[in-house]
Amino acid sequence: MALEHAILVSLLEQPGSGYELARRFERSIGRFWTATHQQIYRVLKRMETDGLVTGHEVGQDGRPDKRSYQVAEAGRAVLTEWLREPVQPEAVRHDLAVKIRGAAFDDAAGRARLVDEVRRYRAGHEETLDRYLAGEQRDFPAGEDLDTGQRLQHVVLRGGIAYERMLLDWLDDVLETLLKGLP
């Protein structure tokens, strides 16, 4: 997937400025696609030049004007074409998994350092899961009727939650296995 597709989806959900898009990426789209503010602004400018989005200035009281974007017909066509293309399974690159496999060839001190690294890595994913769960409570309160777009957003979030839980279970297994091999 290209960043352009993620931006088009986000702008179809709600038009906005580059700053607003970056915030959305941090809160929701970042669950499955990351981009820096600079990448978003650079791609937005290129997309506007290519006619995929249109932008207009919006005045703000006491602050500089902002540029707000929405999807142009050409952008909608590009997104529709991409949505209908088949998706190939992604190859997973996981440095930590390779390090865990390589631990068989390291000494006890090296494996002990790897235990610390796995614990640090696990803590980061625990924070991510907590953030996803808080976002789910905030954005999808129980019992609330959701429209199709919201239900699709929620199912993607639930996939992220399931992935983080699976990863944490696996990391617990890794830690248990590594600790068995230490004196």
UniProtKB/TrEMBL annotation:
<dbReference type="InterPro" id="IPR036390">
    <property type="entry name" value="WH_DNA-bd_sf"/>
</dbReference>
<dbReference type="InterPro" id="IPR036388">
    <property type="entry name" value="WH-like_DNA-bd_sf"/>
</dbReference>
<dbReference type="Pfam" id="PF10400">
    <property type="entry name" value="Vir_act_alpha_C"/>
</dbReference>
<feature type="domain" description="Transcription regulator PadR C-terminal">
    <location>
        <begin position="92"/>
        <end position="178"/>
    </location>
</feature>
<protein>
    <submittedName>
        <fullName>PadR family transcriptional regulator</fullName>
    </submittedName>
</protein>
<feature type="domain" description="Transcription regulator PadR N-terminal">
    <location>
        <begin position="7"/>
        <end position="81"/>
    </location>
</feature>
<dbReference type="Pfam" id="PF03551">
    <property type="entry name" value="PadR"/>
</dbReference>
<dbReference type="InterPro" id="IPR005149">
    <property type="entry name" value="Tscrpt_reg_PadR_N"/>
</dbReference>
<dbReference type="InterPro" id="IPR018309">
    <property type="entry name" value="Tscrpt_reg_PadR_C"/>
</dbReference>
